[in-house]
Each structure stands twice: as C-alpha cells, then as structure tokens.
Design goal:
By secondary structure, the protein is α+β, with helices and mostly antiparallel strands. The chain folds into 2 domains: 4-217, no CATH class; 235-452, Aminopeptidase (3-Layer(aba) Sandwich). The chain contains 14 helices and 18 strands. A 6-stranded mixed β-sheet has the order 12-11-13-18-14-15. The chain has a 4-stranded antiparallel β-sheet with strand order 1-2-3-4. It binds zinc ion (ZN).
Amino acid sequence: MTVRRPVRALLLLLLLPLWLGGAGAGRVVSATDQTANGARTLAEPYPVAGVFARFWAAHGGLARFGVALSPAVADPAADGLIVQWFERARFELHPEAPTPYLVQLTLFGSAALGARPERGAPPATCADDCRLFTETAHTLRGRFARYWSAGGGLSVFGFPLTEEIREVSATDGREYLVQWFERARFEYHPEYGGTAHEILLGHLGREALAGRPDVAGLPQVAVPDGPLPASRPRTIVLDPGHDRTTGGASGIEYRDTLRTALAIESRLVARGYVVRLTRPGDDAVLMNDPALLPVDPGSHDAGYLEGYAHASKILSLDPDLAVSIHYNAAPTGPGGGSLTFYCDLGGPQNARLARLIQAEISVALHERGYTPPYSRAEEDGAIGKTYGHLATLGNVNDPSGQAIGNRMSGLPIVLTEALFETNPTERALIADDATIARLAEGYVRAIESYFADAP
Ligand SMILES: [Zn+2]
C-alpha cells in the first residue's frame, strides 16, 4: 500500500500552521530543507509506504514525526535493517518482532543523550500525577506523561532517561523544557499551548541524518504491509461525584452520580473503549487517601479538597477524556436547569466537549418529555466558583481561592450537572432508570462526536 497521495494532501493541510509558527516547528519544512537527499520540494515528499505508513498514521503522523527525509532504505550501518528517516525519528522494520514492535523508533534519544550527567541525576520527588520508572530511575509526570501514554508509551518512546530539564534547542537556539527518552526527546512549546503542537518531538531524525551523508546514495527498498493495529483503544475516566461521607446534593447525589457512571460505562465498553471509574462503588472514599490530597490540605476548604482528590484520582487513571458526573442543588427553593461546566485554563478542547455533552443531555431530557428551564455549557472560572468544581477540573488554587494553574492541561474534561436533586420534577426524573439510560446514551454520543472531530 502506498500513501503517497494521502501524505501529500496531509502536508498541504497541516504544514501551513507549522510554517507560520516559527521556532522549532517553523523549521519543519522548507522547499530546500531536504537537499541532503537531492533537490526535493514540498510537492514531492518521500512516500511513506507499507507498515511504515500504518505506524505513521496511527501514532500521530506529520505532527509527531514530521515529513520523511529519506526513502525506505536497507541501512548498511545496521546490518541491512530496513529504515526510513523522518525529521523527528527514524522508523525501523522488525519483521521478526510481535505486532506491537513490528515498527520501532531508533534509539536516537539514548544515542544523542550519550553520557550527559542529566542521565545519572537522581529522580525528582514523585507524588501524585507522577510515575517513577525503576528501570532508569527517572520520573514521568504531567503533560509529558499524558503525551507519552497517548502516543503509545513504552513501546513507542521507551523509558525516560532524564528528568524534565531546560536546554537550548539546536534547531532554533531557544530554551525549552525537555525530557529525554530512549527513542525521543519531548519538547514543551508554550507558544503552541492548547494546540496539538504544545509538545513536539525534537528533530532527532534530522540531527542523526546530518551525520550520514551516505544515505542519500542508497536505493529505495519496498516496505511490506503488515498487521499493525490502526490504533489503541481510548481510555475514558468517569468520576461519580462525592461519596458516602460527603453525600453531595440532598445527601443522595453520590448514589445517583454512581448510577449514571455505571450506565455510561457499560455502553462505552460495548463500543470498545477502556473505561475507568474513580470510585467503582459506594465503599471508596477518595479523601481518605492522603496521596490524592494537595501538599497543604489545611489551607483549603472541604469542597476544594474533595474536588482535588477526585482530580488526582482521574489523572492517576491516565485518561484520554474524563467526565465528572454531578447533580445540582439550590441553596434556597427548588432550583432547576441543566449545566455542563468546563475550564478554559485546561485548554480550548474543554469548551468543545462541554457543548457536545450538554447538547446531548438536552436531547436525552427531551426524549423523557422534559424541557429544563435552561440548558447551558458554562466556563467555570468565569462564574467565580473557585472551589469544588474547579479543583475537579484540574485547577490548583492558592489558599485565598485564586486559581493559579491547571493540572490537566490538554486533557478533555468537563463536569456535568444534568438536573437538580432539589427540584421535585427533576428529582423524579433522576430516580427513574429510564432517564439515566437516555442520559448515558447521550454522554456516549457526545464522546463519540468529540473523537470523530478531534484534531
Ligand atoms: Zn456535586
């Protein structure tokens, strides 16, 4: 299978924003950049064929690996191994390996890092939102951890070889926060914050190819097709709000949030998703686990601590998308209405997910013959609610309640309040399993829509 034409179409679609972006991404391609391999132009990228093309497409394509800088060749420096250079990696064909390892990235991270002292530096302190790899004695956390997991994890990038460090890019001379892995260097680009280019792989393929002028003279070889799976299943984390010790709205919300999560879970699993619940039953109390709480629990109110603990649990389950499920309560009177909260501080994807979910909640309630007084997606920080919700949505507050950061940057997450427990009409709907079933189908439609249009 050749993908010459799709690749070319992708290039035309995707290169423009990178070109305009400057910095590391701006050097991705220029008409004369590939002269090491002869005078090639944008209109003539090297084809990516066979199982290399499947791997390229399944693991992030142009945005992750860049364009091909060589054809597929049999590398005399690696006993004739079939390889292809890209800007940010080199693919190797391992026909003898099991399917997940049929295509491997060359260990360019390990080679380029060499014996630099950062490799042997002790690991940073690892608390929540962090994983220590004893194999290399280095940690992985936060946005780099999510990028690593979403991109294929160990089988694609290998183990971390350093902590997060600051270093000057050889590509553009600017300083970036980076982390080295066996097969890649992750670079954090805040200038692309909230986009698919916020984390970029370093130009390890280009840098290695610069030392291999012989490659330009090697003949192109065919790359066989193979059984590489198209992509891994996505992990959805569902967070049933509150627990038996806090109760939530009217002291009963925690049971209804769990009923709803279980109804969504079974439908997502039937569609091939991996689903994790922050609390699978009513026995679990997340706030009893000190590892899930902030370092200064005494500085925060109980609502913030509960939201923070749920957020920690969500992050520990390594989601591709997360939904925190709640029902509402009015301090006085019955209240009534339907809301989905999101937080812009975590990225623009949250508003998109919130609108999709709230639209489907509205459809589900309509199917049950109910039109709520209002149905809205709302930015949570903008309405001044600095506790509870915002902590669940990843915000980290100082003791005065002012939001100072977000732990979930880039992760799509929203918090729903589909109905009010304190409104008798809405409470009757919540108590009816037929409503929960319609709502669950709506959440699933929204999640499928989200991924169908994801960049
Ligand atoms: Zn709640």
